[in-house]
Specification:
The strands form 3 sheets. A 5-stranded mixed sheet has the order 1-3-2-4-11. It is α/β, with parallel strands linked by helices. The radius of gyration is 23 Å and the shape is globular. Helix content is 37%, strand content 11%. It folds into 2 domains: 247 residues, Periplasmic binding protein-like II (D-Maltodextrin-Binding Protein, domain 2, 3-Layer(aba) Sandwich), CATH 3.40.190; 204 residues, Periplasmic binding protein-like II (D-Maltodextrin-Binding Protein, domain 2, 3-Layer(aba) Sandwich), CATH 3.40.190. The protein starts with a helix and ends with a helix. Helix 4 runs antiparallel to helix 14.
Length: 487
C-alpha cells in the first residue's frame, strides 16, 4: 500500500509546481531476475496482461513476436517524483522488505510489467524528468519523426499546454470505441479540455480513488479555545459560508501582542487559495475559450480575498509560499490548505488537533458542487508522431491494469491513508472533495507562464484593488487563450 499510495498521490500537483524541486536525470533499470512465484492474490491480478476478450482489450494476439516480430524499447518520460517508484516496480519485490506493506499487490504489478514486455515484445524503460525537461522534450521532439519518448506521464500544467500546441496524439485515432477508456473507465479515464472540439481527446488519467483535493484545514485546538463551532459541523448543517468563515478569521487572529506567538486566521500558497475560493463560488478564470477573470463571480472572490488581507487583516502577510503554508504546524494559523501529503508530514506530537472541511460556500457558489475542479494531478499522453500507438497504448494499459479490472483490489486498504490525514473524518471529507461529477478544468495556471504572468500578490499586498487586478490581466489571459485554442 505504501508504494501504491506514492504512485497514486499527485504529490507534486499543479498548484505546488511553482515550487517543484528535485533534479532531473535518468533512472532506467530493468530487472533480469525471474519473477517470484505469485501468490493467490497476485495470480488473480496478473491476468490483466493479455486476457483476450476482456473488456478494454487493446492489442490482441499471442505473447512474444507473433503480433510484433520486431523487438523495441518502449521509453517513458516520467515525472521525476514517481520514477523511483516505477523503477522499483520493474524489479521483483522482496517479501522480506519491511517497507513493503502489500507484497501481493507489488508482485502483481511486477508480473504485469513482465507479461506486457513479453506480450508486446518490448523492454520498458523509464527516464526521470522534471517539468521543464518534459516541456523541452515535447517541444523539441513530439513533431519529429522519432519523438524522445513513446509516452509521457507528467503534470497537467505541462500536459495541457502540450496538447494545445499540437504535440499530443488524439486518442480517438488509435483507441478503439469498445475500450474501457470510453466505457467503465476502470483503468483509465479520458480528460477532455474545456474549449476543445468534441471528439478530440488527448489526455488520460489513471483511474483510482482520488485524494488530491485542496481542502481547507483548520486547527481544532485554536477554535475550541476561542469557543467557536467546528467548521465541519457547520458544513454538514448547511451553515458554512463566507460570512461565517470571515467571523471566525477575525476571532482567531491575534496580532495585538496578547499572545507570545502571533496567530493569523489564515495563511497558505496564494495559487492554492485562489483555486479553492474560485471553486467555492462557482467561478473561474480560464475554463473555456473566453477569460472570466472579470466575471461577477470571480470579482466576488477577489473582493473577499482583499477583505481578508487588507481590511480585516486576518490573513498572514505574503512571505514565501512554503513558510506561508507550513506555519500551521507551529500553531500560527487557524486555517490553511490541507492536502493529504501535507497532513501526512505533520508530527503527532504537535499538541494540536487538525480538521478538514470544504471551502465555505460563496454567494454565487453551490454546496453540492463545491469539489475539486482545479487543475491538479498527472496525466498520460502519447506524442503526436509516436510509432505504433496501438502497441504503446496496449502495453501501457496492461501494465496499469495489474488488478485485472478488480477495482477493490486496485484501491486496496485505505487504513494507511486514513492515518496520514489524521483520521477517518478527514479522509471522508478529502475523498468527497476529490471526486467531482465532471471534469471542469480551469487552465489559468497552465497557460499563465513567464515572469510577467498573473499573480495575486499585488492584491494581497494592497498594491491593486480587485477591479484593477482584473483589468490589468484580463487581456493577458484572453491572449493566452486565443493562442492556446488557435483562435
Amino acid at each position: 500500500m505504501k508504494r501504491k499510495v506514492l504512485a497514486a498521490m499527485a504529490a507534486l500537483a499543479v498548484m505546488l509546481s511553482a515550487a517543484a524541486c528535485g533534479e532531473s536525470g535518468n533512472g532506467t533499470t530493468a530487472a533480469n531476475a525471474p519473477p517470484a512465484a505469485p501468490t493467490e492474490k497476485a495470480e488473480q491480478a496478473a491476468g490483466a496482461a493479455g486476457a483476450a476478450g476482456a473488456a478494454g482489450e487493446t492489442a490482441a494476439g499471442a505473447p512474444g513476436s507473433a503480433l510484433y516480430p520486431t523487438h523495441r524499447v518502449l521509453t517513458v518520460g516520467n515525472i521525476h517524483a514517481h520514477t523511483e517508484y516505477y523503477n522499483a516496480t520493474m524489479a521483483a519485490p522482496d517479501e522480506n522488505d519491511p517497507g513493503l506493506l502489500d507484497f501481493d499487490a507489488e508482485q502483481a504489478r511486477y508480473q504485469a510489467y513482465k507479461n506486457a514486455e513479453q506480450k508486446y515484445n518490448i523492454e520498458i524503460q523509464f527516464d526521470s524528468m522534471d517539468m521543464a525537461g518534459t516541456t523541452q522534450s515535447l517541444s523539441n521532439s513530439a513533431m519529429a519523426a522519432t519523438p524522445d519518448y513513446d509516452y509521457y506521464f507528467t503534470d497537467l500544467q505541462v500536459a495541457i499546454p502540450a496538447v494545445m500546441a499540437g504535440y499530443a496524439k488524439k486518442l480517438e485515432d488509435f483507441v478503439p470505441p469498445g475500450d474501457d477508456l470510453w466505457g467503465e473507465g476502470r483503468v483509465f479515464t479520458p480528460l477532455h479540455i474545456n474549449g476543445m472540439p468534441e471528439g478530440e481527446t488527448y489526455l488520460f488519467l489513471q483511474s483510482e480513488i482520488r485524494h488530491d483535493a485542496f481542502a481547507l484545514g483548520y486547527n481544532k485546538t485554536i477554535l475550541q479555545q476561542k469557543g467557536l463551532a467546528d467548521p465541519l459541523e457547520l458544513w454538514n448543517a448547511g451553515k458554512w459560508d463566507w460570512q461565517t468563515w470571515r467571523d471566525m478569521l477575525i476571532k482567531t487572529t491575534d496580532i495585538t501582542g496578547q499572545k507570545k506567538t502571533t496567530v493569523y486566521g489564515f495563511g497558505c500558497f496564494w495559487s492554492w487559495f485562489l483555486d479553492g475560493m474560485l471553486m467555492s463560488n462557482g467561478a473561474s478564470i480560464a475554463a473555456g475559450r473566453e477569460q472570466t477573470l472579470t466575471s461577477p463571480q470571480t470579482i466576488e472572490v477577489l473582493d473577499f480575498i482583499n477583505t481578508m488581507y487588507n481590511v480585516d487583516k486576518t490573513a498572514q502577510p505574503w512571505q514565501e509560499m512554503w513558510n506561508d503554508n507550513n506555519d500551521f504546524k507551529k500553531g500560527n494559523l487557524a486555517f490553511f490548505i490541507a492536502r493529504d501529503w501535507i497532513l501526512q508530514a505533520v508530527s503527532d506530537d504537535t499538541g494540536y488537533e487538525f480538521g478538514v472541511v470544504p471551502f465555505p460556500v460563496g454567494p454565487s457558489g453551490n454546496k453540492d458542487t463545491n469539489k475539486q475542479d482545479s487543475l491538479t494531478g498527472n496525466a498520460f499522453l502519447l506524442p503526436r508522431n509516436v510509432a505504433e500507438p496501438e502497441r504503446v497504448y496496449g502495453a501501457l494499459f496492461d501494465t496499469v491494469n495489474w488488478f485485472n479490472y478488480d477495482t477493490d483490489l486496485r484501491d486496496g486498504d485505505l487504513t494507511e491513508l486514513e492515518d496520514n490525514v489524521k483520521g477517518k473524518t478527514n479522509l471522508d471529507t478529502i475523498l468527497w472533495m476529490s471526486q467531482p461529477e465532471k471534469a471542469n478544468v480551469d487552465i489559468w495556471l497552465a497557460i499563465n507562464q513567464g515572469d510577467d504572468g498573473f499573480s495575486l500578490t499585488p492584491l494581497m499586498n494592497g498594491e491593486a484593488t480587485p477591479a484593477q487586478l482584473a483589468e490589468t490581466y484580463k487581456n493577458w489571459f484572453q491572449t493566452l487563450l486565443d493562442q492556446a485554442y488557435k483562435k
